[in-house]
Amino acid sequence: MKHLLLVFAALLIAPLAQAQELKEIKLNAPDKTRGSAVMKALSERASSRAMSERELSLQDLSDLLWAAYGVNRPDGRRTAPTAKNDQDIDLYVCLPAGTYLYDARNSLLKPVISGDLRPVLAAGQDFVKHAPVVLLIVSDYSRFKMNDVERSRLWGAMDGGIVSQNINIFCAAVGLVTVPRAYMDQPKLKEILGLSDTQMPVLNNPVGYPATR
């Protein structure tokens, strides 16, 4: 039985080893005119785990990522603030075929690793395995220029929470559904993605269209 479990685990993780199978995805320019008023979006903000498995359109994905952590000024500053503008956050985009890193400056998704990372993010919550996209928010607290690790981790968690809130408000404004989650297999994620000791998975947001009844 133990041997079978090891074989199954190897088969599950093996597809994650070939990032070269993935190609960069060029994102669309964000549509900054869409969505409801901020107060209306706030009034409609809600966490939902009931979402369709239908793939997000490229425009919806592009707008979602820009709202979450895109570049909104010529000097490279972002839609979400970070402590001292050290921009410690990396946004990983987990799709069924593989995981990408959001390159906001060039409006690209850069391949990181192929295969489906959603079961690792799900950590036992099945709805995550069927979300069309899961955004993984990672803080690299080594980018904070200080020697106080505890404070750096606190700042990283704060910055990740702001990015997650951007995701939540955008989804409420345009009719997508999401839920912020801290529940995930962090050690396995760090191992699979090759994250350093200072890269901390903070939160993840599954995102999709509302489930049809």
Give a quick rundown of the structure.
With 213 residues, the protein is of the alpha+beta class. It contains 7 helices and 7 strands; from the N terminus they run αβααβββααβαβαβ.
CATH topology (level 3) name: NADH Oxidase
Largest sheet: 7 strands, antiparallel
So what's the CATH class?
Answer: Alpha Beta
**Portion of residues in helices?**
25-40%
Biggest sheet, spatial arrangement of strands: 1-4-3-2-5-7-6
- pLDDT average, as an integer? 91
Q: What is the rounded Rg?
A: 17 Å
Strand content: 15-25%
Structurally, the number of domains stands at 1
CATH level-four homologous superfamily name: NADH Oxidase
Give the ordered list of helices and strands. Answer: HEHHEEEHHEHEHE
Low-confidence stretches: 1-17
How many E-type strands? 7
Compile the SSE list and pairings.
Elements: H1 2-13, E1 25-26, H2 38-44, H3 58-69, E2 89-95, E3 98-103, E4 108-114, H4 118-122, H5 126-129, E5 133-140, H6 149-174, E6 177-178, H7 186-193, E7 199-208
Antiparallel strand pairs: 1-4, 2-3, 2-5, 3-4, 5-7, 6-7
Helix pairs in contact: 2-6, 3-6
Give a verbal description of the structure.
This protein has a seven-stranded antiparallel beta sheet, with helices on both faces. The protein has one domain: NADH Oxidase. Mean pLDDT is 91; it is low at 1-17. It has helices at residues 2-13, 38-44, 58-69, 118-122, 126-129, 149-174, 186-193; strands at 25-26, 89-95, 98-103, 108-114, 133-140, 177-178, 199-208. The protein is of the alpha+beta class and 213 residues long.
Structure characteristics:
about 210 residues; alpha+beta; NADH Oxidase; 7-stranded antiparallel sheet; 7 helices; 7 strands; about 35% helix; globular
